[in-house]
Amino acid sequence: MSHKEAFEALDRTLTDIRENIIFGGTPLVIAGDFRQTLPVIPRSIPADELHACLKGSYLWQLVEKLHLSTNMRVHLHNDTTADSIDGQITFPAEFGHNVETGDDLKDKVHPNIIHHFTNKKWLCERAILASRNDKVEAINMSLLNKLPGLNITYKSIDTVVEQDDAVQYPTEFLNSLQPPGLPPHSSSLKIGAPIMLIRNLDAPKLCNGTRLAVKSMIPHVHEATILTGPATGEDVLIPESHSSL
After folding, report:
1. 39 — alpha (psi -120 to 50), left (phi > 0) or beta?
2. Residuewise pLDDT in 10s, the chain (245 residues)
3. Dihedral of the CA atoms 173, 178, 181, 187 (nearest 10)?
4. Which DSSP string corresponds to the chain?
5. Cβ of 197: how many Cβ atoms within 10 Å?
6. Spatial contact of 225 and 215, defined as CB atoms under 8 Å apart
7. C-alpha pair distances (Å), 104 with each of 98, 125, 227, 241
8. For residue 54, which of 90, 98, 17, 1 has the smallest C-alpha distance?
9. Which is it for strands 194-196 and 152-155: parallel, antiparallel or unpaired?
10. Are the C-beta atoms of residues 222 and 212 closer than 8 Å to each other?
11. According to the model, what pLDDT value does residue 79 have?
């Protein structure tokens, strides 16, 4: 569900463009369950999410509430065809390949990776998506360990902006954080390993989401080959960078 400020901004805009009444007199249907679709507030507590939903807005008292009373899932309980359905679905063969385990998935997407990882075209044609960063990290480490060569680990230097906060937020705590949009405190690399930029460095060549392959690792800078985008095949230097929250 959208943040209450989004509804309030829409109300102000329509009121300014149309009439001086709620949403400018435009009927607006809002559907959802506040127990399931609260706004997502980064680094917040449950109370912040409750306060950010539409119920916490001045608009809520002007909303006409309609409640659904019929459960359509059980409304057709007398339908005899319901008994013939086991609740399972079958994917057609052309939909994709089903695998049983995570190892099978990695072998299916990156077969014989040790023999193909130097092929840049082969690398940029495949990727594994996951719903959580910890799963992505586990998959990355598993595939990285299959590559030949020395595994070099890089660690971030995490500090607080205000030194007065150093006691409240010790370095060990900062190292444990994994905020969205930032890499983990510890990252491992090998020559030939695919990597991805997570910030814009030199648009349109080096943008957030650009995929590259590590070519060499020099102190304070990495040399990499671009795998995607308008500069595919070009070698670039990726320097150390500073990020803040």
Report:
1. beta
2. 788 899 999 999 989 888 888 888 888 888 877 777 778 888 778 888 888 888 889 999 988 888 877 766 666 656 666 566 667 777 777 777 788 888 999 999 999 999 999 998 898 888 888 888 888 889 999 999 999 998 899 898 888 888 878 788 888 888 888 887 788 888 899 999 999 998 888 888 899 889 999 999 988 899 999 998 888 999 999 988 887 77
3. 100
4. ---HHHHHHHHHHHHHHS-SSGGGG--------TTT-PPP-TT--HHHHHHHSGGGSTTGGGPPP------HHHHTTT-GGGGG--S-----GGG----SSHHHHHHHHSTTHHHHTT-HHHHHT-----SSHHHHHHHHHHHHTTS-S--EEEE-----SSGGGTTTS-HHHHHH---TTS--SEEEE-TT-EEE--S-SBTTTB-TT-EEEEEEEETTEEEEEE-SSTTTT-EEEEE------
5. 19
6. yes
7. 9, 18, 25, 36
8. 1
9. unpaired
10. no
11. 61
Q: What are the tokens at 152?
A: 């070099």
Residue 107 phi/psi, 5-degree rounding, is -70, -30
Q: Which residue has the tokens 């070698």?
A: 235
The pairing of strands 152-155 and 186-189 is antiparallel
State the Cα–Cα distance between residues 184 and 155, nearest whole angstrom.
Answer: 8
